[in-house]
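Lab notebook, bench 4. The sequencing result for the construct came back, and we need a structural model before the next group meeting so we can plan mutations. Quick request posted to the team channel:

Model the 3D structure of this chain.
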Amino acid sequence: MKIVDIRATTVAVPLEAPLRHSNGAHWGRFIRTIVEVEADNGLIGLGEMGGGGESAESAFRALMPYLKDHDPFQLESLRFKIANPTASLYNNRTQLLAAIEFACVDLIGQHLGVPASDLLGGRVRDAVPFASYLFFRYAAPGHAEIRTPDQLVAHTAELKAAHGFSVHKLKGGVFPPDYELECYRALAEAFPDDRLRYDPNAVLSVGEGLRFGRAIEGLNNDYLEDPVWGLEGLRAVREQVRVPLATNTVVVNFEQLASNVLRRAADVVLLDTTFWGGIRPCVKAAGVCETFQIGVAVHSSGELGIQLATMLHLGAVLPNLTYSADAHYHQLRDDVIDGGKMAYSEGAIAVPDGPGLGVRLDRERVAEYAELYREMGGYPYDRDPGRPGWYATVPNARFADPTVSSVEAAP
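Done. Here's the predicted structure in token form:
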């Protein structure tokens, strides 16, 4: 089996409403580049990549000279062909590699007639549990803003009723820490039997991180995720706070993982199939974490159904996955795969049973959302449409005003 073509299509898939985060916002849609890798036997493997609100089509097209006639089974040589660690300093191809690896795993599974999870060691679970992913958000037609503790609690109750979530993750760093602490405590009071996690995307100072961490020590926490930036910052907080710390930002390769093993900064590593360069590196990293008693979870970087399938197959094969996975998925209005969005059941999503990743494209949906991208274009992920001229610093001291009600955000 040889690669004969690579095609990339950028789509804009609508979200329920614009989602705010510590460094900007998702402006009411996810911009994703869908990758199709065609083999000489007629099979097509699927990959997917984000990109901060921008298209990556041209970057994928540029890989064709590297990958023409490459055997998709040769995944280790694939890594060095396009993401040699020295060469990648100049072109940062790790996320491109991930999307191509997804597609090659998909091709291998289709060729052999087995699900991707069988290629990764076999399933230890048939469904992967997820946390609700809670955002402060702007109002949009049919969807109210989420800004106050009461609005946040009401939205969480709706998600819990609709999807069965029993773990709730609050994406913070938008409003001042004391205000978000009030919101977090409101969740704990409203859902005393559920577990919680808080993620301000590393914009707190060490002092604020310590204060916030100590204030939540008595709550039913899974972990405190990236309260501050960097391994040294996390170590400073971890030494003085009795809440497990997690990261998805500063342990995203094996050298950083080794540093975390030698001098523990994070108790939980969130494995992202894009950030780590594919599904297989995440499986390898989980094995290291198992050896050194570091917890693992599955991270979400704003997925459609293709990357969600990679997350599900990853979650299916990790015996040490003791935390619910993250997913933005319930924030989407639609998907580009056959059958539309995958369904939650009791807070979990079933691992696809079909060969490879187990998902196929709905060509009409792809065409519809490719046209939407052409109409609307991309957006700057690290800017907030409701705060013109603002940008985040690390640590951040310019938080949004929680007393100001939002209006519908710009597209």
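The radius of gyration is 20 Å.
Will bring this to the meeting.
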